[in-house]
Amino acid sequence: MPKVTLGGKELEIDEDGFIQEPEKWDKAVAEDIAKTEEAYPMSEDHWKVINYLRNYFLEFEIAPPIRMVTKQTGFDLKTIYKLFPGGPAKGACKIAGLPKPTGCV
Amino acid sequence: MKKKITLRDIGKIEGQMVDIDKADLSRLPAPLDDPADEPGIKQLTGEQKDRFDASLDGISAIGLVKPQNKQEEEDFVRKFIAGLKKLLSKENNWTFLQPLMLSLENCAKCQNCSEACPVFTESGRQEIYRPTYRTEVLRRIIRKYLKKEGKLLSKFTGSDIDLNFKTIARLAELSYRCTLCRRCAQSCPIGVDNGLITHELRKLFSQEMDIAPKELHQLGTVQHLKVGSSTGTSPKALASFIDFIEGEIEEITGKTIRIPVDKEGADILLLHNAGEFISWPENIEAFAIIFDAAGVDWTLSSSLVAYDAVNYGVWYDDVQLARIAARHAQAARDLKVNRMMVGECGHAHKAMLVVSDRVLTGDLNIPRESAIPLLEDIVLNDKIRLDRSKNNFPVTLHDPCNLVRLSGIVEPQRRILRKICPDFREMEPHGVDNYCCGGGSGFAIMDSNNFSDWRSSVSGRMKLKQILTTFGDVMNPEIHKYVCAPCSNCKGMIRDLLSRYRLTEKHGIYYGGLVDLIANAMVDVKGQFINWETS
Fold it and tell me: Cβ(B374)–Cβ(B412) under 8 Å?
């Protein structure tokens, strides 16, 4: 796995840029990933999505279904794509430090 | 431009054997008939090229790490030969030896299979993708290295293939350039099954050499057995998803419908592909709404492994296949259900309904069925109230290979669609002659390196052409069009095709499952079940 510096730390990432050690995530890491995802500077709306994803992940160890995200944050899918041009999984989840989704999703 | 490639080249050519040039790909129909609309396949980065072997076609599906020295290279070849011997012995391959030998010994080289193979034809007839190419290489390796008289004979017959790292590495990648759709086997006058041979090669690589795509193995079957699902869904997360889904059902129908979980003695244990909970919760909702209205006595299981119907082992590893199949059946036995039923998941049909026949015996041999005939009974025998005018938009049906060609479930889904969709139109060809979505055998979830580009540009190309042709007269984006794909894997692949070529955005082509259309036609569901905004 390649290593990169994010938020001042050296972190392992996979070939799509997902960090491999979710416990090392913090806000500075998120902002550095956001720069590569056309989601920088991060507004309050960005953080609303990221914090929701992060908290769900900490409780359930998986990303929530997209529809759960739109319902809980109040942003529709179009808005999510505007905030995160890479989309909810490859954009938002990556910034939130979640692993890349697996299985038939 | 394409190079002329021979069988012996697999062990001889230095560097990359062929390059998949987008100019060689088949032409797409309107509105994608401008070759500039073809995104092509991105090249591996220098770092990826250094690390992984991509000497077949510049694509790395399996992330095969190159050997570091001569010793590693020799061990690699030795392990392959040892594995091949096991593959050809009754003690080690009792499941598949007979059909494997029949296919290895009986090819007449007529090439009917090549014309039937969408990977071969749509790639612009790349020789390496010909169904007989990898098979013939394997046959010649067996003849030369495993048979007593082989070495001498192979020189006379010109079948002299070098068995070195290059040959084996390319063969390993090549076993992931076929979707196991088995259209070739159907077209063969003798019944030679090149898909089966590809499957057996994948088995050899996984079981004997630890070579398998990480999406299928570490993140697939290994995660499934450890965490409970290949999606990483734990029982706790499952409960959270179900809670959310019940809430959505209430919003849509105004009714409180509980999703039964671990209901002992239910008639049916329904097994969903767990990807549905995450990416297509509407599929789970539609099943629940329909079953509730029809009075079906059913349950889900919350047991580890059994809340995910998938069994990726069926694509590449018999041992992993058996482990998962047993866990599915144990859950059914513990819940004392009458039968197990697979939802809209093609490869789970293959694993549970067909291949598991050789694995599940004694008290684990519980009746295993597809949900499609039950849905047909509900729809055709008026067990729920339906209004077909609610599905007043063009609908076509994509046939998952494992449903039609493998399981023989061909007409039930069509009888449903003819009844509930006023503008149902068949793709050509369809039914048992269908083309794979391009994501079969795990391809839809394999995204490593540049493989997702390859599958969208090459293995999914024929399906893309079929979709465009079927809706050719209604391309106006104002008209919503629906590709019905009753399989999670196919849905994922079709989603990627529609998005890559911007067909939803520019031409109003959507996709979804079968139960979604049934729920959408239900009189008791006020308004529309299908939500075009979130589809």
Answer: no
